[in-house]
Amino acid sequence: MSAADLIGLFGHCLMLSLLAVGGAITTAPDMHRYLVIEHGWLNDAQFTTSVALAQAAPGPNLLFIAVLGWNVGGPPGALATMVGILLPSTLLTLAVTRWGQARRDTRAARAFTQGIAPLTLGLLVATSWLLSEPLRTHSAAWALIAVTVLVLLRTRASPLWLVGLGAVVGALGYV
């Protein structure tokens, strides 16, 4: 990976940092577009495996950014992606938190808080759709998605049970 590629990767992560409203995982669709489709540095399987590996590891959910950076550029790639994804959002969070604390009861602060929820939901749905792509041809995967949505909408069951169910279905070779 050239220095220009690293700078481009860093700049892309700087931009994505400001979209990571629901957490870094919401940037996965655009990371996929940039790394897989636009540059061809990873294929679909490598991308999905990188995200799955990082999400399975203990720690913050943004670890997948470091794994993707490592896979495309080694240690410099991991550093470029992590600094790029953390710097703008950290500075913006600090500024908005101070602004919000000073104006907690204003109409603008309430509107901002209420407006963030649909944006976060949309980004999470887009991420889920992208990460489910390799499995969407299997009827068992669609059944598992349907069961997950129904259980989460109609009960107060912990999502961890559904993750476990998905692991069992995958281990048995149904998807």
The separation of the N and C termini measures 35 Å
Number of helical regions: 7
Oligomeric state of shown chains: single chain
Strand residues, percent: under 5%
**Unreliable sequence segments:** none
Structural class: mainly alpha
Largest sheet: none
What sequence of helices (H) and strands (E) makes up the elements?
A: HHHHHHH
Radius of gyration: 18 Å
Rough outline: flat
State the share of residues found in helices, binned by percent: over 70%
Q: Tally the beta strands.
A: 0
User: Mean of residue pLDDT?
Assistant: 88
Description:
With 175 residues, this protein is an all-alpha fold. It has a domain at 3-112. 76% of the residues lie in helices and 0% in strands. It contains 7 helices and no strands. It has helices spanning 3-17, 28-38, 44-56, 63-102, 107-131, 139-154, 159-171. The longest helix is centred in the middle third of the chain and has 40 residues, at 63-102. The two termini are 35 Å apart.
Key attributes of the depicted protein:
175 residues; mainly alpha
What is the structure about, briefly put?
The protein has helices at residues 3-17, 28-38, 44-56, 63-102, 107-131, 139-154, 159-171. The chain is mainly α.
Layout of secondary structure:
Layout (H helix, E strand, L loop, with lengths): L2 H15 L10 H11 L5 H13 L6 H40 L4 H25 L7 H16 L4 H13 L4
Helix pairs in contact: 1-4, 3-4, 6-7
